[in-house]
Amino acid sequence: MQLSWKVFFVFLLVSSCSNEVKPYNAVVVTRHHLATDVGAKILENGGNAVDSAVAIAFALAVVNPSAGNLGGGGFLLYYNADENKTYALDYRERAPIDADENMFLDADGNVIKNLSLNSYLAAGIPGTVKGMFTIHELFGSKSMDDLISPSVKLASEGFRLSDFQANNFNKYRKKFLNGSDSESIFINSDDKDFSAGDVFTQTDLAESLRLIKDKGQKVFYEGEIAEKIVSDFSDNGGLITSQDLRDYEVYFKEPICGDYKQYNVCSMPLPSSGGIAIIQMLNIIENFDLKNYSHNSLDYIKLLTKVMSFAYADRSEYLGDEDFFDVPKEKLISKKYAAEISKKIKSGEKITVEPGIYFYEGDQTTHFSVIDFDGNVVSNTYTLNTAYGSGIVAKGTGILMNNEMDDFSIKPGTPNAYGLIGSEANKIEAKKSPLSSMSPTIIFENSKPVLITGSQGGSMIINTVLQEILNVLEFDLKLSESNKKNRIHYQWKPDVLFYEDLDEKLIEALKKDLRLYQRNIGETQSIALENDEYKGWPDHRRPDGKKIELH
Ligand code: GLY
User: Fold this and answer.
1) CB hemisphere CA count around 381 (13 angstroms)
2) What is the second-level CATH architecture of the domain 257-364+438-532?
3) Active site residue 365
4) Measured distance CA(443)–CA(451) in Å, rounded
5) pLDDT at position 414, please?
6) CA 18, chain centre distance (Å)
7) Domain locations in the chain as residue ranges
8) Which of 29, 105, 452, 493 could form a disulfide with 525 if both were Cys (CB 3.0 to 4.6 A apart)?
9) Any idea what DSSP says for residue 132?
């Protein structure tokens, strides 16, 4: 009798294991189909969300070089389902030790055009490699060899360029003609344009990735790669020194979280302005009953424009790296402050705005989202700043270097590449992080992730993420539907409402109060819980993105 019970128990155990129903399905969504394939394969082979994200980050550096990177930095939000805890990892670039607030100004105090964008002075100390190793060390389960090998293969054997990518390389040809190694990598040797289907190989990058895979992150910050970067930068008037690379640190920070109705919204804290601005805007919107507004109606757009103007004005005035500037963040994200702003909006009060510059960059920065079978989540946005960063490849490394120094307020009151104005809070100081708009975000309902999102788009990132949140939470749209909705963007300065497409009557009505400019806005790679299943959606605004949903 006893034996048969044991046999029965073993049978029960085996049958329950073999029929094990995973509590979650898994999803990977990125900007490039090959990076999505890499990330999904890691999950299929038993890796977790962190493993998948690390492999994706390295793969995007190869297959999406306008924004994926080793020579840039970013922000990673990680939700650990076991602990029911969200971690925020800041692997943003820092200013070199020799940087100072006058470094981009001439003797008369005027900004020297393009110095903060396309020169050896434009790069901050890159954080991506240390960021990926740090998150992996704490939460990864696969070996770094498993996670980096696919990228080594993509770089050494090459991959076929899509129509979009071939044209994009051709479009930025002038930027690559800068005397650095980028000329031989991103310009065809026979001087012909790239075409769709061309196999694009990156020999030096493959070697750098191989070194990182075999020797770890130290090789980037203290070893052969560091030496090559420092030597190229010192030969060409750059500031990055061995000490800068050796001293570089990444930081885990408390995410910025706030309640919006029944949801808990968590996003990136400073030096991202995104978390604070998104919570601030949602707090203001909570004072308006959105049931009375139809999507993209005149009233809705006017309301969003006002809400955005207050948040972006505060961004300009108060936000910067809080290790260097006392940021009143508790006030900015308080419900009380939001109620005061709402009152002003309802009474018709406006803040003063002035014209500024338009901005055009559109291929910079990239976001990806991952959820694994155990419900762990990574929401990651990283960047070289503008497309292909400074356009400078550090000699012999194949690594494109960022131009993140332009995200500082290079002269208070002077707009950066995104038309953003900064103040004392975001002035250049040694080892400081430039203020960012990157906003990886995770939204929870009853401690369960219901929306994982983030975007590219410089200053437009914050408003893109806000509209994705409102579309899903307030207008009950599926991601596929949300993605088709036209977006708007208003950032206080310049006093221009950017819009994707709106009907003629609406445009005429908006023109009475606002200057309008049509352009693409943002590019989300989101995951949402729809009917008890996680669904991904790569933004249709750009080709080449891909989601994989695993069951
Ligand atoms: N470089 C764009 C951002 O960090 O906002």
Assistant:
1) 30
2) Orthogonal Bundle (1.10)
3) yes
4) 5
5) 78
6) 39
7) 20-252+366-409, 257-364+438-532
8) 29
9) H
Backbone angles phi, psi at 29, to 5 degrees: -140, 125
According to DSSP, the β-strands at 515-518 and 496-499 are parallel
- Report, as ranges of residue numbers, the positions in the chain whose pLDDT lies below 50: 1-19
Probe target for ligand 1 pocket from 66, 270, 404, 416, with the most ligand atoms within 8 Å of CB: 404
Q: Are 396 and 181 in contact (CB under 8 A)?
A: yes
Ligand 1 atom 4, closest CA: 436
- Whether the full predicted model's pTM is greater than 0.90, yes or no, is yes
Instruction: Give the DSSP H/E element, type plus range, for residue 550.
Output: strand 546-550
Alpha carbon of 538 to ligand 1 centroid (Å): 20
Prior bond to 126 cis, omega within 30?
no
Sign of CA dihedral 159, 162, 165, 171: positive
Residue in 113, 96, 378 with CA at minimum distance from that of residue 245: 96
Ligand 1 centroid – CA 406 distance (Å): 9
Number of Cβ atoms within 10 Å of the Cβ of 427: 20
pLDDT single digits (tens) 458-485: 999 999 999 999 999 999 999 999 999 9
Q: Would you say the CB of residue 456 lies under 6 angstroms from ligand 1?
A: no
* CA of 198 relative to ligand 1 center, distance in Å: 30
Q: What number does the ligand 1 atom closest to the CA of 385 have?
A: 1
Please report where in the chains the tokens 């498993």 appear, as a residue: 146
pLDDT at 548: 98
- Alpha-helix runs per DSSP H in 85-143: 128-139
Query: 286: burial class by Cβ within 10 Å (0-12, 13-18, 19+)?
Result: middle
The CA distance from 316 to 421, in Å, is 6
Separation CA 311–CA 319 (nearest Å): 11
- Give residues with Cβ within 8 angstroms of 404, minimum separation 6: 72, 73, 92, 93, 122, 123, 124, 383, 384, 385, 389, 434
Structure confidence at residue 354 (pLDDT): 61
- Catalytic hit among 128, 305, 365, 366: 365
Q: Which pLDDT tens digit goes with each residue over 489-509?
A: 999 888 899 999 999 999 999
State which ligand 1 atom lies nearest to the alpha carbon of 92.
Answer: 4
- The CA 358 to ligand 1 mean position distance, Å, reads 16
CA distance 441 to 459: 16
